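We store sequence, tokenised fold; for instance:
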Amino acid sequence: MNGAPPFRPRANWCLGVDAVILGVEVGKASSYRDCRCAIRWCEEVQLPTRSETCGYVIAPDPTRTGLTRAVRGVDHTGAEQTISVVEERPLTIYLNSREIVTAMTIGDYPEYLALGFLRNQGMLSDGDVVTGIDFDEELEVVVVRTAVETDHEDKLARKTRTSGCAVGTVFGDMMAGLEGLTLPPATLRTSDLYALSHKINRTPSLYLEAGAIHGTVLCQGAEPLVYMEDVGRHNAVDKVAGWMFDEGVRAADKTLYTTGRLTSEMVIKTALMGIPVLASRSGFTAWGVEIAQKVGLTLIGRLRGQRFVCLAGEDRLVRDADVSFVEEEPRKSRRKGAA
């Protein structure tokens, strides 16, 4: 482990009942490997499962306390309504003793968010040893500590002094990280793509509960593994990146699915994570497409029901699905593309 506490899978992540799987108590699995073994065993013996969440290592928990609140108002007719709205709170990220950024977030998985943000911004590299992650819920601060001070802290300090705004310069560092980048060869079966879309859109989530939120899902083959949500799509992908970094999960055989737009920053972050495929139910930006084409990333958008559009990396696609058997998505799921 690289400092963040081990994740605690939800009690409903695979089985519909509390049980002990291969000696690993549900909700107390010690590692990603334990969960994968448990999932395979679950599938082999065909125990009762909740089809919408089975297979996830981390799945959304719309019922978790503190992520939403009930707010009263009136509708267009003047009738009183009570709806759930997503909470939003600041989280300040430190790298050792230097304050890096304050992000607005829903507040879950702060350690993964901090790790992933620093990783995706190029402030943590493979050679950096994370010795600890301290989260103070009251102060809304998370501190990532490394064995030695990184050169990124000094670079950020100098850029902030000269420009007064670190955002653009940090983005420039992300672009520089693409130089010489080669993504691994991979194949993507359209049958897997349709299966992922079908399952993700039917997974209970904060979006279906309250809306106004984005989701990012790390997938392998036809199986979604880690589903993160946040008020910003970049926060959601950073949480996934943080989990991958902490667990040491390889990226070469993964697909990243997002409910948000396929922007340049989403493409860059996916490429820097080493993931060869990025898919979304939403649309593209021109620069996002251009960067994907340059780095060899497979970029798929407007993935809804039987339809999708691939604007980069089509060579990875294996068209093995008979679309006549692919279901159109339910109306409620279509709302995910509107956030």
In short: The domain at 188-338 is CATH 3.40.140.10 (Cytidine Deaminase; domain 2). Residues 1-30, 37-50, 158-169, 335-339 have pLDDT under 50 and may be disordered.
